[in-house]
Design brief:
The chain has four helices and nine strands. By secondary structure, it is α+β, with helices and mostly antiparallel strands. The protein has one domain: Ribonuclease H-like superfamily/Ribonuclease H (Nucleotidyltransferase, domain 5, 2-Layer Sandwich), CATH 3.30.420. The strands form three sheets. Strands 2-3-8-7-6 form a five-stranded mixed sheet, covered by helices on one side. Strand 2, helix 2 and strand 3 form a beta-alpha-beta unit. The protein is globular, with a radius of gyration of 19 Å.
């Protein structure tokens, strides 16, 4: 199945950077990070809680981290905890229906960006790279130029419903890198700039403990 490729306006806030660094996060630290994020949101939205919260992580969520997220975000209608796994052995090739009975014919371009394949209720493959004809008026266009793109593997540790909303979120976030004019990146900005933010904090140990908008680190 292919999803429409678009990006929705969204405001992303980062809590005050911390010098702590651990994976997995200690239960108490994870709870403080989540509680701080909620406080920042409520401060800017007249005390209201968000209806839906999505947490991306490059590694598996531990039971302690899951409990900490649910404790901090009590009262939120939907909480999705999703591992975004970059290294994936899967590959996909688009096959065209043959003119007569027989095997499919491999296309000249990769499968379209936004294609996703559900592996189970907890796992889905999502192609954030691929053919993007909608960007060039219907013609074939593969930004990377060559090679077969590898999908991201999304693993859900909490949440319910179909995979379409989570995949749309990731696709939209691959278009939020303001440092280039590329059509998209492979990783959502939540993942690609987490490392940038951590590196900035390490180099600026005297950074004031105040909230900073995520865009300042992009």
């Amino acid at each position: 199945m292919r999803l429409p490729v678009y990006s929705r306006p969204m405001r992303v806030l980062a809590p005050a950077p911390s010098s702590h660094s651990a994976s997995p996060l200690a239960s108490g630290f994870a709870r403080r990070v989540m509680a701080r994020s909620l406080a920042l949101y409520q401060r800017r939205h007249a005390g209201r809680k968000p209806k839906r919260v999505v947490v991306h992580k490059s590694t598996k969520f531990t039971d302690e981290e899951i409990d900490a997220c649910f404790d901090a975000w009590q009262g939120v209608e939907a909480l999705d905890l999703i591992q975004v796994q970059q290294d994936c052995a899967w590959r996909g090739v688009e096959l065209h229906r043959p003119a007569t009975v027989g095997k499919g014919i491999a296309g000249g371009f990769p499968c379209e960006r936004g294609t996703h394949l559900t592996l189970s209720g907890r796992d889905v493959l999502l192609w954030t790279q691929g053919n993007a004809p909608s960007a060039v008026g219907g013609r074939n266009f593969y930004k990377e130029g060559k090679a077969i793109p590898a999908p991201l593997q999304l693993v859900r540790f909490a949440g319910h419903g179909g995979w379409e909303p989570a995949c749309r979120d990731v696709l939209g976030l691959t278009k939020m890198d303001w440092n280039n004019d590329s059509l998209y990146d492979r990783l959502p900005v939540t993942m690609s700039y987490a490392r940038v933010l951590a590196r900035t904090v390490r180099r600026m140990s005297d950074l004031a403990p105040h909230p900073y908008e995520f865009r300042f680190f992009m």
